[in-house]
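Students often ask why we bother predicting the structure of a whole assembly rather than each chain alone. The short answer is interfaces. A chain on its own may look different once its partners are present, and contacts between molecules only exist in the joint model. In this exercise we take two input lines together and write out one structure for the complete complex. Read the inputs first and try to guess which parts will touch.
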Amino acid sequence: MLSDYFLLALKNVRKRGIRSWLTMLGIFIGIAAVVSLISLGQGLETAITGQFGSLSTDTLTLSSAETGFGPPGATAVRKLTDHDLELVEQVPGVKLAIPRLVRITKVDYNEITQFRYLGSMPENKEQIDEIFNSAGLEIAQGRMLKPDEKGKIVIGDDFVSQDSFDKEIQLGSNLEILGKNYEVVGILKKTSTFVLNSVILMQEDDMRSLMSIGDEIDIIAIKVQDADKIEQVAQDIERKLRKDRNQKEGEEDFSVQTPLQALSSIRTILTVINIVVTGIAAIALLVGGIGITNTMFTSVLERTREIGVMKAIGAQNKDILTIFLIESALLGLVGGLVGAAIGLSMALGVAGAANSALGETIFKVSPSIPLLIGAILFSLVIGILSGLVPAYQASKLNPVEALRK
Amino acid sequence: METIIELKEVEKYYRMGEELVKAVDGISIKIEQGDFVAIMGPSGSGKSTTMNLVGSLDLATHGDIFLDGKDIEHLDESQLAQIRGKKIGFIFQSFNLIPNLTAKENVSLPMLFQGTEKEYRNEQAEKLLEMVDLADRMDHYPAQLSGGEQQRVAIARALSNDPEVILADEPTGNLDTKTGEIVMNFLDNLNKSGKTIIMVTHSPEVAQKHSKTIYQVKDGKIERVMKKIKGKWKIV
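Now the answer. The structure tokens for the assembled complex follow.
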């Protein structure tokens, strides 16, 4: 019985051809938006948290409050200094405080100019090891910088794996940084963090004299003794610096970032993106639902006579109701299926494009089966709900009046 | 003869704006099983309304309608639909086939609404279409059929639940004389096989040639009843 009604409804939907597809457009858009953005959101979160995966949980970062965009510390009003470094070292629980410089610099090679991050390496072995450990760095070729070594650099994997200078860079190659030649003595292993893959590392003194940086410090990397007390140490550092600078809470011109804070701010951004996207999808689905209702009302009007005939030859109200509900459910279902397919391929396309642009497969979209099934079921429910009123109206038609149409 | 349909002092009013229209104004009819009844009258005489009441498509404002001895006045919509589907077969002037369905599917439809098994439905639909000489048109859609063919499909559809009564509203109204005659011959045959036929028509020739009883309706009342007795029409 029901299968016969299903076939009947299917014939009616197919008969309307292009109008059925147009009706489903809103559902396509809504479901495609939901599916692609949730799949991408998951991929994005995996990718971004992957960037932080290399951060160890016992390291804090102290930097000046920023006034603009750029590498940490570059646009700060008040730079960090050795005095701040000393203060930090005095805070109980701090095991090691490493001053660092991070700048963007011009790099020339093979007569091609590029801009890259330049990071300083501290002088002593213990601090170098600490930076390597906490950032998850490893040497792939060559060696690490020696303390006090001048004119030498270590470069990220992108310099060798990406052909940005049209000429191979290898150990012993000379890169021109701000007009001075530097010899490559080490190449880093590829990491999941793309900033580190394109970085140049140089000895701190070398960098200071090259870029004429006085005694200022861009960031201070702080290793704590006990990872469980990291939040406590962060607060102690903040308190100490506030007192030293005579600032009130909330008015600091510096910030102490814990790895968790960085992660949670990313999560907040992702949540906001998700809310916005969900809102857009909800509007599209609402419009799609109204589209189905509209089409079903039109269909009831057009087929008034047909409904009258069906009633004359013995159709009960529930039969008419069922036929029309199946029709609107079908519109929802097909809309959901096509929308899910579009959404999934969009997500895969965007991820593919992002990965090829970044040259890595950090962006993974795993088709979530519960998401797909959920989206399709949801659009089915929208179809049924949208068809309720028109189907009820159709079932209540008076056969005599309907036949007169 | 057994009475199959009886109308007792039936009135049907419609409200058209402010005005109350008495479409049927006190009609009493007794239709016996096996009869071939023609209801005649000018437009607006109330013949179509009478037809709808007889076919339990509509309920009377006053009076009683008995179908097979049962008062249908107190039935709800679903029960009426069930009775229509089982006991009455409808044939319309404009054929009224469902355009999205093939001839065979159209003939099966009344059986579907009665919850008949699919295999039986197919078998019965094929048998009925063969009977109306449309064995080679089973999978054609209404738009692919001529008017005469469509009306024959409609006859097959009307017969699908093996009803006792066939209601035909101007069955030849949209057909030329020749195809109309073919359709009427099918109705004659059905009447001979025992079906009660009630037909609304404009055409006195069709009524006199094929029916056994003629009701002439005017202004919602029965003006005259004629019966064919031994080949001659007599007013009763």
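Check your guess against this: Residues 177-192 of chain B form the longest helix (16 residues).
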